[in-house]
Design brief:
CATH class: Mainly Beta
Number of domains: 1
Helix content: under 10%
Distance between the termini: 40 Å
CATH superfamily: Jelly Rolls
Largest sheet: 5 strands, antiparallel
Strand content: over 45%
Order of helices and strands: EEEEEEEEEE
CATH architecture: Sandwich
Strand order of the largest sheet: 1-2-9-4-7
CATH topology: Jelly Rolls
């Protein structure tokens, strides 16, 4: 058992990207922040499923070419091998919870969008 306070961690890119509260041994758990105009490169995972829950703001998630606009309180599940791309087209910050499981040290495959 352990407790982590989000305020003690940094986003990967300063004010954006993931902030991992847990990486393994069975899953990853992160808070992800998207300032207006920011995105995650299109990618998929061979083994891990990925889930996103919108805590604030609005985010466009493109899964296998189909666009979904999610807002606060909405959740999306992405299966392994489904290509997904996230972008914040709004004028406000979007914050999401992201989980990936089962944990794999390296399972992200980037693709051209």
């Amino acid at each position: 058992m352990y407790i982590i306070d989000e305020k003690d961690l940094e986003y990967r890119h300063g004010d954006s990207g993931p902030k991992y509260l847990m990486k393994g041994p069975r899953m990853n758990f992160a808070i992800v922040q998207f300032p207006p105009g920011s995105d995650f490169k299109s990618h998929y995972h061979n083994v891990m499923e990925e889930n996103f829950y919108v805590m604030e703001g609005e985010i466009d998630i493109i899964v296998d070419g189909k666009t979904f606009t999610l807002t606060k309180g909405q959740f999306i599940h992405v299966e392994p091998e489904e290509t997904h791309y996230l972008i914040n087209h709004s004028d406000k910050v979007a914050r999401l919870v992201a989980t990936l499981a089962p944990y794999q040290e390296s399972d992200k495959v980037e693709v051209d969008s």
